[in-house]
Amino acid sequence: MSFLHELATWDAALYRALNAYCGWSPFLDRAVVHLEVLKGSIYMGLFGLLWFQPGKDQVRRREMLLAIVLAVAIALVVNRILSTALPFRTRPMYDLGANAPTFEWHADLENWSSFPSDNATYLFAIAAGLWRVAPRWGLFFGLFSTCAAFARVFLGIHYPSDVVVGALIGIAVGLLVVRKPLVEAFAPRVLAWEAWQPGYFYGALFLVTAELGSGFPNTRRIGVAIVHLFVGFKT
């Protein structure tokens, strides 16, 4: 218990050290908040670049890119199971307080446990998958993901441990799923749709990658609405 208490102490100290800079500079605050906007655009840009890049390995590359979608979905399911099974953790902005940015900003949060971070999970699942497809771009997205994930600590949404554990889940699932046996089990069947009905295929692919790049926000809202339809709202 003393070891866990020591970890919790360091976790809170690191959180306070990062959040202390929130509200210090309007430019820094806006740069951090806008990382949330950039992550989807950067992912979709890399996806399109690697998808349409010519070469002898194009088909194999496209199959692995499709596997990243599956990896992110699995990683988020694993993350939700852990978050539900473990004791509820209040977000630090409510538990310890947080410095606010220099402009009006409201976090769009479900009433979910802070641990582990969904945001870090899906970002690093993408980074791990991209690393298998194109190591340099995977490393680039991994560095961006680190900044974007710890921006959540800066804003008071997560503790550092939430981000670290979420990242480890994403990396583990991404490296496991985007492997030859699993890729060959389903990706060629999906890719065959591209030759058969390219219009429908690319329309669906755009919607899926747009959702994936932002952490499936609309899908999650639909899921939450369905749950509330049957169990009601807590008051």
Outline the secondary-structure elements:
Blueprint: H1 2-19, H2 26-52, H3 58-85, H4 92-95, H5 118-133, H6 135-154, H7 160-177, H8 180-196, H9 198-213, H10 217-231
Helix pairs in contact: 2-3, 2-6, 2-9, 3-5, 3-7, 3-8, 5-6, 5-7, 8-9
List the main descriptive attributes of the protein structure presented here.
235 residues, mainly alpha, 76% helix
In a few lines, what is going on in this structure?
With 235 residues, this protein is mainly α. It is built from ten helices and no strands.
Would you write up a description of this structure?
With 235 residues, the chain is an all-alpha fold. It contains 10 helices and no strands. It has helices spanning 2-19, 26-52, 58-85, 92-95, 118-133, 135-154, 160-177, 180-196, 198-213, 217-231. Helix 3 runs antiparallel to helix 5. The longest helix has 28 residues, at 58-85. The mean pLDDT is 84.
Share of β-strand residues:
under 5%
Envelope shape: globular
Q: What share of the residues lie within helices? A: over 70%
| Helical segment count | 10
Task: State the total count of DSSP E strands.
Answer: 0
- From N to C, what is the helix and strand string? HHHHHHHHHH
